[in-house]
Description:
The structure is a single chain. By secondary structure, this protein is α/β, with parallel strands linked by helices. It has one domain (2-95, 169-274): Metal-dependent hydrolases (TIM Barrel, Alpha-Beta Barrel). The protein has helices at 17-26, 41-53, 88-114, 121-128, 134-143, 150-158, 173-182, 200-212, 227-240, 268-274; strands at residues 2-3, 31-34, 57-68, 72-81, 186-189, 217-222, 243-247. The protein binds adenosine monophosphate (AMP), fe (iii) ion (FE) (2 copies) and zinc ion (ZN). The site of one fe (iii) ion (FE) has 4 residues, from loops.
Amino acid sequence: MIDLHSHTTESDGTYTPKQLVDAAVALRLDALAITDHDTFAGYNQARQLAAEAGLKLVCGIEMSTKIYHPVRRTVHLLGYFGENGPSSDFISWIEDMQEARRDRNSRLAERLQSLGLDIRLEEVNALGRSLAGRPHFAKLMVSKGYVPNITEAFRLYLDESAPGYVERQEPSLAEAIQRINQSGGISSLAHPVRLGKTDPLEEEELVAEIVRLGLQAIEAYHSDHSREDTRRYLGYAEKYGLRITGGSDFHGDNKPKVKLGCAQVPTSILDELRQ
Ligand code: AMP
Ligand code: FE
Ligand code: FE
Ligand code: ZN
């Protein structure tokens, strides 16, 4: 079994890169991909540790992108890179994204302060290590007693429809797909069930549109997917000539119900991705 979707403390997971490698070894996973949001810092730290432990580690990333279809929506995209890692062009593009995120974070802290919350950027950055995100704001709001839990933090303040929401410059899905592909990586549509399409025909139409943008793979296996969902996404893969990826989307204690390896991803898909 393999797991191609996981997060470390370098983004919004609670396991350090070392703890994650140890957990994957303990589970005897055949391979693990670290796919932190907008950063390779976790993968870079885990690389040597995984090699020493005999764990096959795949370099990955998860990005939030936007697509207008017909209204603006956020779509998560995964990128997977081979032994040599992403190109230097891609890395410098990711650094631009990180800058946009830091800019958003500083405006978000100001907005929350204007709403009467004592949330300071330095505190958020201390929690978020290389890359703080809204989950770190949410955590801080919980620990300061402003909200009972993370879900409420999003509902009352951080969600796109909530009063604290501050826009972040997000790349278009088209650009992100092309950058990953050009860098020699494989672009994969993350947890397609979260596209939120209840009508399978509408869902397929949106997937077909994303395929036209150059998408190469689809995350058919994911902790949010029912068996039925997975079957449907394997069907899209077949029909549109996409490769298949899958993973738990492990975030440690931030999503305690999601266990590493729980998406039951067959090891065979990794060989197909390598080709
Ligand atoms: P950011 O990339 O900083 O805008 O934060 C986005 C991240 O926040 C997502 O990847 C999720 O992990 C998390 N998130 C978004 N909405 C919610 C929600 N309603 N409840 C909990 N976590 C959320
Ligand atoms: Fe996340
Ligand atoms: Fe995601
Ligand atoms: Zn994820």
